[in-house]
């Protein structure tokens, strides 16, 4: 299945692609030096939006759950990256405990199980014995589950000792979280000082804030753009954060409208600068939400007060029913990518500091301004040819590997921002 | 171009494949721990022979020159491996000087230039500015060359200062040798203590000995086989080394015949043990030769004395006209692999400790016992599907990725042997 991709690349992005291709050795060296200073999270998925005139990360997921959407032939890249990561974290690692989402056992989520199967295969091939442990006190016996593709996995009850977490007859060196901890940090994961928790607990959505991430990204984008001599706006969406917003009671509404207005004005100024005739819009998102929940689009500050009851209650709660109190107002970046007739946005997957593949999130019933992370979305693996070596001699915009390389660079900037974000928000580092 | 592969896999090798697949996490961990102790050479190509009843490395090349024979879609694996290698060797590396073979400029070798183009693309993508410097005192001006595929490269005169080697306006951090130094170590490469020479000078064929390599491999194979509980002979060819052999004058002939006889007897004993009905044979090779030169096959010790004049003079000199005085007598391992009607042997390429791809060396005019590294050979890239994740549930012997994984494991054992060999023969370490 090779997706037929249509990208309306305008002048500015073609220039950027060309500049990135020509500066490849300098960019890779710049990143290499950054990784000397900052440790990437174990894995990461970045949602990008390519508007033709700008290319920006709009969401950085530290618990990627779509490894099954990567093309099978990129798996060796994932294995190699995992090997490099393990070697740095715990070279004599033997056993890996993977903690999936709570809903792993639910029937409608059997596609999530395919992700678990794929993740286990990668980690096994990288030299680890992999078993799954449930964040679920009610699970008393191992539970055998069947993924949509027929493969089976077993999820087992956790066994916690004073200092270590494991399973029956299974003492892991590292624990890989594929559960984003939206509901808070479970006690069973606290005070595990002898084992590596990947990513660390404060990467979970109960503590993580998108606004922290994008503040760090602002700085990364600025430094990268300076090196490349480009306008950072080309790779960075404007954003503002607003706290104390209670959609149900309309508290904080005026402050939110003010922020929306400020961001819209900044976008409008840039649109004028670049002669872009589209109408600016912003996306209001939960500052710690995920799964595409708690997201709404507005084109004018007055729309904030005009949200109807249904829209307000949709914005009031995120994943797992968690109340939304803080939001981020993010510049809306249209996507001009299509897979056949459907609007598409690229998602880039990384393990350690390496891009290992990607896929398109595709939605047939949404527009190019919409959030595509919504029921009805489909996934189309990026064919491996897209990950081939860039061709610096190709006509600008014409070679899929060149475009994918650009995506990989911007995704790694978001990964770098996540690394710095996790350093800055590390509760242990703050105590020191 | 997907090669049609035919492999007559017998019982013993199917068992080995199955055992290796099942023990993958343990094997990868074992290798990971070995790489804590030993540093792999920068790159390496290993020739394997798969006889159906055994799978063995027969040659380990530390100056691989066939990167152009790898499938284009494995390039991202090569880039990722090169990134990991550079990060360890010289994280702030900016410039890389590549030193090609002397014959790079010769017309008939324009395929070698394709290798250089490919290698440069990999290293550039890994974040280095790459230029080529000629080991040729007569080159006074940059020389522009065109590879068989139309791509151009420029080879420049070397500029040596007291402490550093470079090119005009180009001061590299590392120097990558793709020249095997068969003619001896050129003075221009001596005493470069501020720059990294990859691989080190003593990896060159003017000092390296195959017998050292296979002695180290004996030990690696023994340790690996113990872990996996297999007969080390399954993955290791018998060998003996003989020095002071002058084929032209027939000096050392009796000693050589004796070694041939001893190795043949050992093979015959194993053939009886496993019920193999083929006739044992040995390959006599220059102990420091390459390019498939200085190689002959004998089935009986009496054949040594019976070599005719032409055969003796063919054995007397190796690559670049270097006189052969030391030989290795290696157990002949037939290859039961075919690509269409031609006999084939797999070659596995590695960068740092990672398998990055492979190809088949194919020869339509040779038998399954012959050396295939001879004029008339062709190269068929191993399609990328072969490098996909192994399928532990597949019928034994039926899945190309499973077979390729086995090849990758054995090739990495040879790589490990090369690492230990280079440690043991390091002249600086010996001085200490």
Automatic annotation (TrEMBL), chains A, B:
What's the Enzyme Commission number for this chain? Answer: 6.3.2.2
Residues of the signal peptide: none
InterPro entries (alphabetical) = GshA, GshA_N
User: Any keyword Transcription regulation?
Assistant: no
Which domain of life does this protein belong to? Answer: Bacteria
What keyword terms does UniProt attach to this protein? Ligase
> Known Pfam families for this protein?
GshA (PF08886)
Q: Which Gene3D superfamilies match?
A: Glutamate-cysteine ligase, N-terminal domain
Q: What is this protein called?
A: Glutamate--cysteine ligase
Gene symbol of the encoding locus: gshA
């Amino acid at each position: 299945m090779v997706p037929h991709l249509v990208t309306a690349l305008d002048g500015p992005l073609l220039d950027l692609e060309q500049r990135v291709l020509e500066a490849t050795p300098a960019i890779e060296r710049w990143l290499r030096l950054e990784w000397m200073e900052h440790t990437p999270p174990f894995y990461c998925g970045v949602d990008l939006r390519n508007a033709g005139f700008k290319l920006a990360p709009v969401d950085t997921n530290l618990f990627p759950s779509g490894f099954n959407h990567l093309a099978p032939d990129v798996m060796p890249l994932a294995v190699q990256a995992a090997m490099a990561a393990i070697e740095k974290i715990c070279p004599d690692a033997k056993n890996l405990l993977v903690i999936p989402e709570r809903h792993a056992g639910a029937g409608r989520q059997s596609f999530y199980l395919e992700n678990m199967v794929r993740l286990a295969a990668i980690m096994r091939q990288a030299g680890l014995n992999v078993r799954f442990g449930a964040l679920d006190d009610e699970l008393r016996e191992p539970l055998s589950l069947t993924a949509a593709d027929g493969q089976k996995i077993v999820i087992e009850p956790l066994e916690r000792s004073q200092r270590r977490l494991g399973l029956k007859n299974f003492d892991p060196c590292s624990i890989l979280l594929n559960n984003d901890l939206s509901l808070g940090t479970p006690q069973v994961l606290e005070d595990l000082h002898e084992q590596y928790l990947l990513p660390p607990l404060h990467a979970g959505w109960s503590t993580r804030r998108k606004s922290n991430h994008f503040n760090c990204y602002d700085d990364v984008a600025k430094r990268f753009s300076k090196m490349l001599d480009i306008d950072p706006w080309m790779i960075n969406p404007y954003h503002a954060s607003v706290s104390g917003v209670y959609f149900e009671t309309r508290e904080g509404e005026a402050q939110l409208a003010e922020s929306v207005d400020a961001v819209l004005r900044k976008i409008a100024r840039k649109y004028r600068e670049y002669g872009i005739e589209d109408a600016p819009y912003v996306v209001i998102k939960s500052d710690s939400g995920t799964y595409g929940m708690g997201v709404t689009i507005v084109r004018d500050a007055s729309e904030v007060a005009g949200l109807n009851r249904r829209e307000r209650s949709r914005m009031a709660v995120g994943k797992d029913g968690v109340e939304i109190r803080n939001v981020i107002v993010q510049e809306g970046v249209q996507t001009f990518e299509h897979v056949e007739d459907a609007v598409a946005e690229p998602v880039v997957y990384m393990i350690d500091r390496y891009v290992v593949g990607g896929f398109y999130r595709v939605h047939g019933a949404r527009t190019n301004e919409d959030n595509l992370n919504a029921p009805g979305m489909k996934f189309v693996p990026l064919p491996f040819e897209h990950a081939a070596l860039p061709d610096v001699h190709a006509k600008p915009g014409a070679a899929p590997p060149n475009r994918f390389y650009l995506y990989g660079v911007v995704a790694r900037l978001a990964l770098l921002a996540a690394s710095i974000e996790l350093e800055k928000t590390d509760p242990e580092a703050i105590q020191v």
